[in-house]
Amino acid sequence: MSDRHSGDDAAVSNAARLRKTAVKPRPASAPTKSRAKAVKPAPTRAELAKRAPLKRPRYTRAETEAIYERLAAVLPNPQTELSYHSPYTLLVAVVLSAQATDAGVNKATAKLYAAADTPEAMVALGEAGVREHIKSLGLFNMKAKNVVKLSQILVDEYGGEVPADRDVLQSLPGVGRKTASVVLNEAFGQPTIAVDTHIFRVANRLGLAPGKTPDDVERMLEKVTPERFKRGAHHWLILHGRHVCKARRPLCDVCQINALCKSPERIKADPGLSEGVPGG
User: Could you tell me the residue range of the domain that residue 127 belongs to?
Assistant: First the structure.
């Protein structure tokens, strides 16, 4: 509520005092401007990159190398848990995976791909047909629309093929940076690191690549991950977060990198281990 009414009462008292002392009152102030704030547009990725430097990771180069070496020893050839058999079916699966589990997506795509596993066949199936096969997934109406639209674009502009180009992929309906990174990495072998909720949590919890946004974490992971591990980094971290370093109850007793971990949660749970943490 405005202070104008209480201000008017105070002005009356002040005026009386001013009359007694023969001091002329000051002119009334101009009306105050609206306090409504203009809504600022969300910052772009380029603007985010110009912000203050990110927090430094808790690990030395050698320690980071050791972490990846241990994760790689368990899964030498990591792969996505989404079922696919071509760059196109991978692209569709990743688009469908938003706010859904890989198991749920695999169940839906098993039926979908039996009916249509190429852009041409998906366009022929149409939104209603796609929707019928994926209705067990969240946001299935929008996903069906995006899958048919992106399939039509691939047919019309790219000969039915999925381009190995980030800008093109991100221009497709329903495809954001994370989806494009997964496709580029898994289907085309590019050293991209897609940051999902699991990787975001693990990178911050461990202090391997701390950041306030997925873009922050991605930039830091690209910086600290040794070149020879970049191809598999996305898979190692996501699988570690999904099956070992879980959100509520991380399985520290079976964790491959337990002896290297500098997570405050892990140190707090067992202070005696802090002395054995390299660099701790």
Answer: 87-205
